[in-house]
Write a structure and sequence with these properties.
Blueprint lengths: L1 H33 L5 H8 L3 H29 L1 H20 L4 H29 L3 H29 L6 H4 L1 H12 L14 H24 L4 H21 L15 H31 L4 H6 L2 H21 L1 H21 L6 H29 L5 H29 L3 H26 L4
Helix pairs in contact: 1-5, 1-6, 1-8, 3-4, 3-5, 3-9, 3-16, 4-5, 4-8, 5-6, 5-16, 6-13, 6-15, 9-10, 9-16, 11-15, 11-16, 11-17, 13-14, 13-15, 14-15, 14-17, 16-17
């Protein structure tokens, strides 16, 4: 009875506060992935550090973020989504202040790693809170659209804010997080308490997952940094693969696995996880190469390059807002099919445009791809939440976001390697556009086949 009363309260006055807090947190987590990129040259001039150290300022965040998502999703179910969400937002504020006062590059790397831990706590808990606060499907679709708008718009706003704040002082790219965290914590007062679920703790699985993701992603990062001939990079990668295989084997044998393998047998989960991986693989890789192309090939400044992403930010926000209505009217399958098709069109438009590639073509292509992604993301997130019961919302959300974050890390590394082997960034950009369209086409076919009898 207490649980039902709590759910009723959430569906009332606290539902809006929950949705806004989760959406702001989604924006914050997404923005911090990219805002630091344009500030790195200035930071290096002030604090020193070689190129590898600068890379770890960026990758320290994404590495811990991806590696801890499954653990934090499990904690969200065990300790309650609200409790984990509030702790994550508090840690994010503290780590942001710590980073803004960093006195050396190594201290800054530590701060960025702490930000990655905080993001891993926030993201699966935010999806679980939306699920708790919006039990009715129509309201959940609208809430997920806002949540998706927060994360999607951040990828365009991040470089722009970085370009605006860095000339004042580079520390502001971290300090800007604090007001957002305070807003989230104020809104969290209105969020109803989440249920706590007593579960056995899978120490073996947690250890193998953490070790496997850290080594696997670190290996990919090092391959992109040191080259495909680096034995150290391949050693890290191979050790990560071995640890992840051992993790999967352990999940099939323990009584209370942290990542129930039976979830992979659900068609909706299969489709959503594949979509999440490929979409962010393409998007992060494209943003990375586009930024290099604009600044290196076209000679644009950091702020001017950031402006190229602004149209896609507004289009993406609009796409997320109408995406909820499309899901409500036509269902998740229609929304995902429509969104993937639009993304393919955007990538093909950029690939087929004759050389030289002008700035307006890149901005237009980014907007089209962003619009399609904005329709697809909330639909895929909704499929994840509908595929499991409330007791597993946290871990299912963590699985979805783990695939997304790993996809982003792999995308940057893979497309970075492609750029080093091709003679020009123009060719690298075209290769990214073609490969992205082909990957999305494969996912579209996979989705239609998996849901063909529905």
């Amino acid at each position: 009875m207490k649980t039902m009363t709590g759910m009723g309260t959430r569906a009332g006055g606290s539902a809006l506060a929950t949705t806004v807090a989760a959406s702001v947190a989604s924006f914050l987590v997404g923005m911090d992935v990219l805002i630091v990129n344009v500030a790195l040259p200035t930071i290096a001039r002030d604090l020193g550090g070689d190129m590898a150290t600068q890379q770890w300022v960026v990758d320290g965040y994404s590495l811990l973020f991806a590696a801890l998502l499954l653990l934090c999703g499990n904690l969200s179910d065990r300790w309650g989504a609200k409790r984990v969400f509030v702790f994550g937002a508090t840690l994010f504020a503290a780590a942001s202040l710590f980073s803004s006062f960093a006195w050396s590059m190594m201290v800054l790397v530590v701060g960025r790693c702490l930000l990655g831990v905080a993001s891993a706590l926030i993201l699966p808990a935010s999806m679980a809170l939306i699920n708790e606060a919006n039990p009715e499907p129509r309201r959940r679709a609208w809430a997920l659209a806002l949540w998706g708008a927060g994360g999607a718009s951040a990828s365009a706003v991040g470089p722009l804010l970085g370009g605006l704040l860095t000339p004042i002082h580079w520390s502001l790219v971290f300090a800007i997080n604090v007001p957002f965290c305070l807003l989230v914590l104020v809104l969290a007062v209105r969020i109803a308490p989440s249920p706590r679920r007593i579960k056995p703790f899978d120490w073996v699985g947690q250890t193998l997952a953490l070790l496997g993701f850290v080594l696997f992603i670190a290996g990919i990062i090092e391959i992109g940094s040191l080259g495909v001939s680096s034995l150290r990079a391949w050693g890290l990668f191979g050790a990560g693969v071995v640890a992840l295989v051992a993790f999967v084997i352990s999940q099939a044998r323990v009584r209370a696995p942290m990542m129930p393998l039976r979830l992979f047998r659900i068609r909706g989960m299969q489709v959503a996880l594949m979509i999440g991986f490929v979409m962010i693989f393409n998007w992060y890789g494209m943003v990375f190469i586009c930024t290099m192309f604009l600044q290196t090939e076209l000679g644009m400044g950091a702020f001017a390059a950031g402006l190229v992403f602004v149209p896609s930010a507004f289009v993406t926000i609009f796409g997320n807002l109408i995406g909820g209505r499309i899901i409500t009217a036509h269902g998740s399958k229609f929304s995902i099919t429509m969104g993937l098709s639009i993304m393919i069109v955007g990538f093909l438009f950029e690939f087929l445009y004759p050389a030289p590639i002008p700035v307006w073509v890149i901005a237009t292509g980014l907007s089209v791809v962003g619009f399609g992604a904005a329709i697809t993301t909330p639909a895929a997130a909704g499929v994840v939440l509908k595929s499991v019961d409330a007791a597993q919302a946290g871990i299912a959300s963590a699985m979805f976001n783990t695939f997304r974050q790993v996809g982003g890390s792999v995308g940057v590394a893979v497309f970075g390697v492609v750029a080093t082997f091709l003679p020009s960034l123009t060719l690298a950009l075209r290769a990214v556009f073609l490969a992205s369209a082909a990957l999305l086409a494969c996912i579209l076919v996979f989705e239609l086949l998996r849901w063909g009898d529905r």
